[in-house]
Amino acid sequence: MVTAENALSIKEWNRSASELDAYKLRDDFPILKRWVHGKPLVYLDNAASSQKPQAVIDAIEKVYTDSYSNIHRGVHALSQECTSAYEEAREKVQNFLNAAHSKEIIFVRNATEAINLVVSSYGRTNLSRGDEIVISAMEHHANIVPWQILCQQTGAVLRVAPMTDEGELQLDEYKKLLNDKTRFVSIVHISNALGTINPIRDIIAAAHDRGVPVLIDGAQSAPHTSIDVQELDCDFFVFSGHKLYGPSGIGVLYGKTEFLDSMPPYQGGGDMISYVSFEKTLYNDLPYKFEAGTPHIAGAIGLGAAIDYLTSIGLDSIAAYEQELLEYATRALAEIPEVRIIGAAKEKAAVISFLIGDIHPHDVGTILDQQGVAIRTGHHCAQPIMDRFGIPATARASLAFYNTREEIDALIAGIKKVIEVFG
Predict the structure, then answer these.
(1) How confident is the model at residue 1 (pLDDT cuts 50, 70, 90)?
(2) How large is the average pLDDT for residues 265-278?
(3) Active-site hit among 82, 151, 234, 381
(4) In this structure, are 74 and 183 located in the same domain?
(5) Which tens digit of pLDDT belongs to each residue from 61-76?
(6) Can 381 be counted among the known catalytic residues?
(7) Domain containing 288 — which CATH number?
(8) 128 and 276, same structural domain?
(9) Can you tell me whether residue 135 is helix, strand or coil?
(10) Which domain holds residue 325?
């Protein structure tokens, strides 16, 4: 058991973990000063959505109080200022992912819409009856259901790469699924339900050996580790702003130019055209071909501010600190006999799904909430994972760089309270 006698002090432990000072950075997040049910808020639901630093809040407020106007259309000052800020945000995303061109960055609502865009535009154009799509057994529903719909519409076939009891992708079995019928691979980088970090370089390389394009779902990886899409050589990469300490309602699709150029528009309307008559329409250049209508202007600018904020801290420092938090939390949970952790991959991000005896996860979450501890309970939009482990749901604590060892201690105390209540 971790006690005051055998544990490092908070300050000593932070110094040993990394140069990142979580306690100082917490001051950047107004909501973390809240109390819930008479207890200080312990927010451990970051895989669902992260909290927002003041810099992001200020950037959004500035758009609406200083320079808001529609973009790409007006010649007046406000439109020009807002257009410039929106396109600067695109360049920030380009640099964040190390994309070759800013035109390879498409703003969408979230990772879900980004996947649906690829399914609808690339999938419906290039896949037909008998073609195969490969995903993994640990996908979020957003990377399952759109492909199922495509299969229903085209007659294509969905293949699923299995995982081990530890929650690791069976890479050899994945490679066996690749064949002359394989037309697309779409794989999660980090599992939202298990924390498993998939070997995406090997996954991409194996698919490319057969000339098969690959989409990487980076919703859980982009906020926590450095991403270089050119080095990875993925063909598509998606993420959501709200998990990246930015606004909700904004997300990103990265796609290699050669793919995006060949794909038809996802939606029709204003700004995605260069010429319209009743006889024909000519489409706009990238990236605007895929951004029909007025976009989430403030959302994109807020996402740019979030990227600036994360970059100022350093993704490598964030990853190192969160790994130490994960190790501390895992050791502490392992000391409680009633706790069973679901997912024990060797390569794992700071996500811990667990069960407490036969207590339903919703009851766990309710009691923890009364202690001020916010976790997620349920199937986490990953029901096939629950089916794989023969369980209906889990409790999930997901960590961020503003979390502390002290907060993990609060989680442990809350779990002990759950066990006490249920005897």
Answers:
(1) very low
(2) 92
(3) 381
(4) yes
(5) 999 999 999 999 889 9
(6) yes
(7) 3.40.640.10
(8) yes
(9) strand
(10) 10-33+314-421
